[in-house]
Structure formats: structure tokens, C-alpha cells
Design a protein that fits this description.
Layout (H helix, E strand, L loop, with lengths): L2 E10 L7 E2 L3 E8 L1 E7 L41 E6 L3 E4 L4 E6 L7 E9 L4 H11 L5 H17 L11
Antiparallel strand pairs: 1-8, 2-7, 3-6, 3-8, 4-5, 4-7
């Protein structure tokens, strides 16, 4: 993996932190505090209403992962958010193209988190091409379905769960 960027972030409790799509693979570590993350596989981009609204930034989701408005965004019921809470000394790996939103845990002086994230280029140029085509909406529905199936298989081979809800 070729390192792209190192990011140091200091969050205090505040509202309005939005979900975002990660363009790079990341190792996220908590230096101080406690942070709760909700992640969604990119195969659910349509369920996250990515590129559904003209007044919203391209490639981003308008859905608040911590307070989902099910009346406005009913497709979010078709998957489970992956959720993890990290405390000082904890780290996690986040694959490229995942959608992520975090929230600082704690109150008062405990409501500050210092995060260190290392960003890396994606492992696969093929996945980069697929994701660029999907994001640019250059694929037919059948091609997009095939791409999602391949991507989900790659995630499974890496031991990652996509968040697809099991049929009940």
C-alpha cells in the first residue's frame, strides 16, 4: 500500500458532522477520547440516496447515519449500518469507497476526540475503475448489479461483511 496522506483530527462535541465517502483506504486510530463510527458498504450507495438530489454534493449521502429519517429515506431499511466504537488506543481499517459518519462520545472534558488516520491508495485499480463508473453512473443496471456482486465477493474474501440484511 502506498501512503497518500496522514490526517490528524480533533473533534469536540458538535452537531452537523455529515457522512462522507472515503476515496482512500484508511487506518483510523484514536489517540484521545472515544468515537462512534457508522459505516456503509458502497454497494448500498443507491440506498443512501447518493446523487439523488441536485442540491447535494456529488458522491455524498444526505442521510444522517445516527438519526435516519425513514419517511424521507425508506431504502435505508434494506441494509444494516456497520457500527464500531473506538476508545484511546483502538484502531480500525476502513476500505476505500465506504461511506462513514462518526460521533464523539462523552460529555464535558470527555467530549473531545483526537483521531489519527493514515490514508492509502486502493488495493485494486480494477475496483477503482468500477467505482468511478458506478459513481459517474456510466453503467447499465445489469452492469451495476454485476459490479456490486463482484465487489461484495471481494469484501467477503477479505473477511468483511457488506451489511446486507438477511431475508427474513
Amino acid at each position: 500500500m502506498r501512503a497518500v496522506n496522514r490526517v490528524y483530527t480533533q473533534w469536540s462535541e458538535f452537531e452537523g458532522r455529515k457522512s462522507k465517502r472515503l476515496d482512500y483506504e484508511q487506518h483510523v486510530c484514536i489517540y484521545h477520547g472515544k468515537e462512534r463510527f457508522r459505516l456503509v458498504s458502497p454497494i448500498f450507495r443507491k440506498n443512501l440516496y447518493v446523487n439523488s438530489f441536485d442540491n447535494y454534493p456529488r458522491g455524498q449521502s444526505p442521510v444522517d447515519f445516527f438519526d435516519v429519517d425513514l419517511k424521507k429515506y425508506p431504502l435505508t431499511t434494506q441494509f444494516d449500518f456497520l457500527e464500531v466504537t473506538l476508545a484511546a488506543g483502538d484502531c480500525m481499517y476502513v476500505p476505500a469507497y465506504y461511506y462513514v459518519q462518526s460521533r464523539t462520545e462523552g460529555e464535558g472534558i470527555a467530549s473531545e476526540t483526537i483521531i489519527i488516520a493514515e490514508q492509502y491508495e486502493s488495493h485494486s485499480r480494477l475496483i477503482d475503475v468500477f467505482m468511478d463508473a458506478i459513481e459517474g453512473e456510466d453503467l447499465t443496471e445489469e452492469e451495476e448489479h454485476q459490479t456490486h456482486t463482484i465487489f461484495d465477493s471481494v469484501l467477503g474474501a477479505l473477511g468483511l461483511h457488506s451489511g446486507v440484511k438477511s431475508a427474513a
